[in-house]
Design a protein that fits this description.
By secondary structure, the chain is an all-alpha fold. It has one domain (16-69). Helix content is 51%, strand content 0%. It contains two helices and no strands. It has helices at residues 18-24, 41-69. Helix 1 packs across helix 2. The longest helix has 29 residues, at 41-69.
Length: 70
């Protein structure tokens, strides 16, 4: 902790990260692990593909919820 005030960080070019934060907080952390103990390379690839599918579905869910509230 510092007594010197730090500058407020702002996303460059107005980048909106709320959808990504919303989605990743709802995902199992193990989906993003580089490789799990005892996991084969092929199993890791399948798990990562599933993680991408889940992320895509969560982002679509977020967009639908935001569209409904707008």
């Amino acid at each position: 902790m510092s007594i010197i005030p730090l500058p407020v960080r702002q996303a460059p070019n107005g980048l909106e990260v709320a959808p990504l934060v919303w989605a990743t907080t709802r995902m199992t952390p193990g989906l993003w692990a580089p490789i799990l103990p005892g996991e084969s390379f092929d199993d890791a690839l399948v798990r990562r593909e599933a993680a991408r599918d889940i992320l895509d579905e969560l982002l679509a869910e977020y967009a639908a919820a935001e569209g409904a509230s707008a």
